[in-house]
Fold this sequence. Notes:
By secondary structure, the chain is mainly α. It has 18 helices and 2 strands. The protein starts with 7 loop residues before the first helix and ends with a helix.
Amino acid sequence: xxxxxxxxxxxxxxxxxxxxxxxxxxxxxxxxxxxxxxxxxxxxxxxxxxxxxxxxxxxxxxxxxxxxxxxxxxxxxxxxxxxxxxxxxxxxxxxxxxxxxxxxxxxxxxxxxxxxxxxxxxxxxxxxxxxxxxxxxxxxxxxxxxxxxxxxxxxxxxxxxxxxxxxxxxxxxxxxxxxxxxxxxxxxxxxxxxxxxxxxxxxxxxxxxxxxxxxxxxxxxxxxxxxxxxxxxxxxxxxxxxxxxxxxxxxxxxxxxxxxxxxxxxxxxxxxxxxxxxxxxxxxxxxxxxxxxxxxxxxxxxxxxxxxxxxxxxxxxxxxxxxxxxxxxxxxxxxxxxxxxxxxxxxxxxxxxxxxxxxxxxxxxxxxxxxxxxxxxxxxxxxxxxxxxxxxxxxxxxxxxxxxxxxxxxxxxxxxxxxxxxxxx
Length: 425
């Protein structure tokens, strides 16, 4: 099957699950001494026996296979094909210089925006932000994490992509990640360099960027120790530590984390064995059921109090003001279905529908933008929201934005309002 006709959304979905469970599981067992009965390192009553592990993962594999089957079935009845011109346009040298300048200016602008957002407590992972008028808080959060990386990807693709620009992007990625204390942010801004290192066949750069990524990845976790403070059980931003003092403390820090631990932390962000182990022991009979769990996970329903979910999942009540999450997509599926095969099929169908809706929208976008790298990145971005289950609201907004972009370009409202002027062009 041609590269241009494959189901990119499904490919990234399966690849992310492989990283989380195929690589994460062995590391989980190797690191078993770090886990506790309760808390953020909780495994509850799990005793690290292979029999219990296989029993739990039987349901995980059933979910994988059902999702794969129903997505392929949807593709058969609702086929999708990309509309790329395989002859890629080469950007002229004089134009690439302009794009290089644009990239530098955009990174400077984004750096200032990150600095302002940090000083105002906006976009910090796990901390409730202040409310700004016109819902600007949510817009800035979403823009800085997802749309800004797309802008940088585009400018980088048209630029000369020399080593100076590459170093600038990687430096900015670390800056953006520290100002948001977000490992997802670091990953999003690192991806353009990794992607074009492969396309440009710069394998030394690719290897160096991967190694460097896992070296700086743990610094984001360490940054939280200086950004957060807990007073009377309430988590808030530590106003005494400015951004530059935090950077100084990180440089002075003697806490060196191994590459293995960094890889474990990365794949753990996608969900993994700890999430699955906790989800297997999750019991919501006192405050919910399959129906309410489904709507809580996929439709942000208030039928179940999230605090009760987190307390049942981790075995303790997280500090007020801190949002530790409630498991990635695989764990959420187990929490919803509670070992019910019928419920597992139903949820698998719903996840398959989400995957294929995104794939349909990407094929429509490909009709407008003859830019395969953008489609590649959007498929990856969709899964970076879905698999770790960052926010289902973000996911639905992402799909609506793709649809909106397509409709704007396909059915130009201005063209309908002033048809005569466009007919003369």
